[in-house]
TrEMBL record:
Signal peptide: none annotated. Keywords: Membrane, Transmembrane, Transmembrane helix. This is Phage shock protein B. InterPro entries: Phageshock_PspB (IPR009554). GO terms for biological process: phage shock; regulation of DNA-templated transcription. It comes from the Bacteria. It comes from Eilatimonas milleporae.
Amino acid sequence: MPEVIGILLVTVVAPTWIVFHYITRWKQMKGLSAEDEASFQDLRTTANKLEDRLRTLERILDDEVPDWRSRYYDA
């Protein structure tokens, strides 16, 4: 009888426990951590600044060299 209990534990209980354990871990890790969110926000801020700089440079070029876009895209 102890062999049956051991086999039952090894073949049914242990794998089921392992699966549920990792499902729980996976669900906990689904969202972003506070550190990840802070990094993401920093990246977003940097991207917005770079986009503003690019728009400014394009406006300057439009004023200084009106046909710069056609020269660039035709080449």
